[in-house]
What we know:
Residues 36-159 form the VTT domain. Pfam families: VTT_dom. By secondary structure, this protein is mostly helical. 78% of the residues lie in helices and 0% in strands. The protein is built from 14 helices and no strands. Helix 4 packs across helix 11 and helix 8 crosses helix 9.
Amino acid sequence: MEAWVQHLFTQSLEWALFAVALVTFLESLALVGLLLPGTVLMASLGALVGSGQIGLYPAWAAGLVGCLLGDWISYGIGWKFQGPLHRWKYLKKYQGLLDKTEHALWQHSMFTILVGRFVGPTRPLIPLVAGMLELPVRKFLPPNLIGCVFWTPLYLMPGILAGVAIDVPNADQSSGFKWLLLLVALAVWLGVWLCWRWWRSGKTQDWVSPLLTAQRLRWLAPLGLLIAVAAFVAIQFHPMMPTFRHLLGRVFLS
């Protein structure tokens, strides 16, 4: 079954673009996005873009349509059914997250809508809560549109980089280069994540919080970012890097 689905997407551009639109729609849809492994799915579709089987800009457009549809349907549901939603028992499981989202929207509506688009737990909730609060369309539309425009390529990017790396021609150094790329990508992700945790220290509480205290993050986050920058700069001098940049450039220019 999995092989059949992969064959369908790689052989049919229309189905592949529909898959991008569907994943971004479900990832943005109220509550559904909390259950969907959207990051993994988007990375898988991004690999098709990186390998040249789907064009970047058609995939970007399809993702934008799906993203906007999911957000605006969620916004409409929140506006229309705000009373029943407040009483719905299922939502009470996310009451703490809903309260934080509601407070953030009251305090900084535009910033919350824009940044919340890139944060997994709040992404499918913010449009719903904005509708429940009857946030005016003029305040919801601009940050929502900007967020959707940039969210799709950002979430496709890990898969794009992986797809391009797979297409690097086989050579004596290519195997080691692909592993180096993976290590650098992990170092960059870890450095950015540690800085995010540092910025959110005191606001985010989960199972990692006792280990990554504010005092530890004060030196760990800058160190992680320094290692990430150093690794990114160092790999630019690898002999296979010009080939990788050429293949990556084709994705953006085709």
